[in-house]
Amino acid sequence: MTAKRKPTPQKNRPLAETIAAALENGEALRCDLGRGARLHIDRALPFLVIHRLDRVREAARAVASANASYLLFRNQSEARAIIAQVSAAMTEKFGAFLVIEIGELEKDHLAEDAAHLPPFEIELAASEDDATQSALAAMATAIQSTDVKFRLPQVSKSALATGKSAPLVARLTDLPALHVAFAPIYRAPDADTVYPDLRERVIENMVDSLLQASAAFARKTGAMKPATHRALGRQVFIDTVTRADRAIDEVAQSFDFLLSVTPINARPAHEQFVESGCKRTPRFLYRPLTASVDRQKRALYSIDLDRFEDPVLSRLYEEKRQELDLQLSMIASRETPRFREFGRALYGSIEPSLLKAAKSILDKCGPGSATDTTQVGTALVKKRADAMIAAYAGDDPTFNAAIELRDDLPSGMMVTGRRLLISNGMSMPKGRVEALLSHEVGVHLLTYFNGSAQGLRLFRSGLAGYEGLQEGLAVLAEYLVGGMTPARLRLIAARVIACSMMLDGAPFQTTFNAMTRDYGFSQSTAFTLTLRVYRGGGLAKDAVYLRGLLEILAHLEGGGSLDPFWMGKVAASHFPVMQELGGRGLLKSPRILPRFLTQKGASERLEKARAGLSPLDMINA
């Protein structure tokens, strides 16, 4: 079966014919059977996870429906007919087939009258054939390696029960079968209260354990040889996911966060600040908001994230919703104390180790004199940007970035979506142009277009918290092209100190004075640096450059690869998620690779980073 095709609901056709046609043609299948019952098969697999809907067992239902091949049923006769039809087709294809029934125990018995948090029960039962016993053993091992809110699982194993109360799989005597039932620890005893976080953790752990059991069965029988158990997971986004993805993206595109909090009067404000003897707090002006915050928040929380049938994707979108909520709260709170505190929640405080690293850089890397005194302006920067974008477009025509020259930006450039914004007041050392364009075009724009190719817009707008890793990669790009200078590294370190001072409540002038008096920055550089940190009411974003760089250097020294990070805009915390989604075939390899990786000296510099490199070692390397 193809993993790229969405399961299409089948209507106006006898069920058996619908199933037979899909299985014969290798098509994805999604049949609604009424009252919540459903058969879903996104591709041919040697197992089927089933769950009976006769009771309120929402976690077990979610576990079942998170699989690539599942059946939710009410009518046992109908279920047995479906299982027989699917098992016959899959056994013919793979030579073996496993049916796994997932359910919940009636109560969390071990928690009754317990003074401390006890273990929680999980019952496993399996048919006696070797392959299913291997699946049972893998399931037990996987379960016992998990920790759910300080309660360890207590696994019991048995033969499949018989009788009226026996699970359906016990009656499928001609098929390998595994039955799993877990205690409902996500529900309050004797109440309808559900603990959402605990519920999600139980679901994720059980889904992963089921996949490990399925992989063990597949390997034992020779039905499949998956490289990892995750390769047996979902490989198709259902319509609920794509609808939510579009809805989240519409909210994200309704406002431009950085432009909303960046002053439009940077140059006049600087002139007025200098005229006051650098003593009067500058007054910054901002663009009118392009979105109604209340309306966008209502839209954000009207998006249904509960029916994804995929715990991993659900978590990614829930994180993104929380991030967008914070950003909307911030732009609604511009120029108020609340802005700074919302920013602290979004970007975090300055950890002592990061502040220590920043101070160490400034202590060991003094102001000195610039080695490159040739300054270039907007015209040359745009010309070089045009050439770099054209080169990437030559590699892949989907790289259709646009350049905008702006009067309403501080000196510099920034990327928003597919646009590269360049200030008309741009002035920078000629030797830094290639490095800065590698930063903006080779990382920020490249990951936007690669993310656009992933099938979900989330990977182009960015997973929650992606900015730290993005900026770390972008600074690494500057180093790889030989463009890391003492002045640049000092600026990145000083931003951390300025953010720390701002978060501690220091006024604009105090931080500005520290940058000029204590750290030797020129008035112009110190003003721009301080403006970036105090914009909107206090924005701690600029600390992510050094934080992200240190994360990337540690990742490389630990033997990590950069390849997953070119797929889209992701955070360091998402590396395991990217591996899982990649293993399931849900992520594509990056369409475009950074051109700076093949520039002269880049591979040698990258090897130095893998061997262990400090930020100071990157200067002029």
Helix content: 40-55%
Number of helices: 22
Q: Which sheet architecture does the biggest sheet show?
A: 9 strands, mixed
Q: Return the domain count.
A: 2
List segments where confidence is low: pLDDT < 50 over at least 5 consecutive residues.
1-5
Number of strands: 14
Shape category: elongated
Structural class: alpha/beta
The strands making up the biggest β-sheet line up spatially as 1-2-3-5-4-6-9-7-8
What is the percentage of strand-forming residues? 5-15%
Q: Average pLDDT value?
A: 92
As a whole number of angstroms, the C-alpha radius of gyration is: 28 Å
Oligomer: single chain
For the termini, the CA-CA separation is 50 Å
Cofactor: Zn(2+)
Pfam family, one: MATCAP
InterPro entries: CHP02421_QEGLA (IPR012656), MATCAP (IPR012548)
Organism: Pelagibacterium luteolum
